[in-house]
């Protein structure tokens, strides 16, 4: 299969590219830079800015599938300006991809579009499957708009899978890159109450999920891409400390300190979601 990707040079994208190549797929990656970086030589590189219309869109219709992983990191202080960067990097990119797919005359059959479990907002201990309603905070509304943009491709005969990702873990990047320094220094501790839920997924398992969704033509719509057993922040902190042979003995980080340091992002860290991958499990996906 010929596959077009955005976000192919990131922490998740580079691993997915290698997995796709390993299965014999041909991969084209859209990049703002002509520098190949970590991408293997067999990857076709198309340069362009995904948030802008441009010549890069002409490459999309030649592909049977599109994987859209583009989006500015949420792990930053959410100023008014940065919120707009987060929004545009997702909404404009998706809109431009869908516009390009509209000219494929039926050749492009699948869009795997990244989203996040932040779609659901905050529900405490409630278990959230794909039927749960969206929240009303900034991240939830952003995810909702992001997904609505992706669904426009259905009007062009494209099977759209909205991949609601949990926190992606793995060596060399992702959330671990933010968490490890404090734990390695013996300063790791739960955040706030520590009782908030942490819906996570290891990068290795997420890659397998993407390959499963690529091959399974019966799956469409929202899919929670999370481990079947979410953990609390306290449990995650303890497990990470044990894995690094570092005790978690520091007092909990107060909620007010997190909100002061992170602003609106602090609510995401302090509340979380208890998302379950019921659709994947029902379709027969296993580790």
Could you give a quick summary of the protein structure above?
It is globular, with a radius of gyration of 19 Å. The chain is built from nine helices and 13 strands. The chain has 287 residues and is an alpha/beta fold.
The CA-CA distance between the termini, in Å, is 24 Å
Secondary structure class reads alpha/beta
The helicity comes to 25-40%
Number of strands: 13
Task: List its salient traits.
287 residues, alpha/beta, seven-stranded parallel beta sheet, two-stranded parallel sheet, 9 helices, 36% helix
Describe this structure in words.
It is a single chain. The protein has nine helices and 13 strands. The chain has helices at 11-22, 80-101, 138-151, 174-184, 203-215, 233-243, 255-262, 265-271, 278-282; strands spanning 2-6, 26-31, 44-47, 65-68, 110-116, 127-128, 159-165, 167-169, 197-198, 200-202, 221-225, 231-232, 274-275. The longest helix is centred in the N-terminal third of the chain and has 22 residues, at 80-101. Helix 1 packs across helix 5 (203-215) and helix 7 runs antiparallel to helix 8 (265-271). It is an alpha/beta fold. It has a seven-stranded parallel sheet, with helices on both faces. A two-stranded parallel sheet has the order 6-13. It has a two-stranded parallel sheet with strand order 8-10. It is globular.
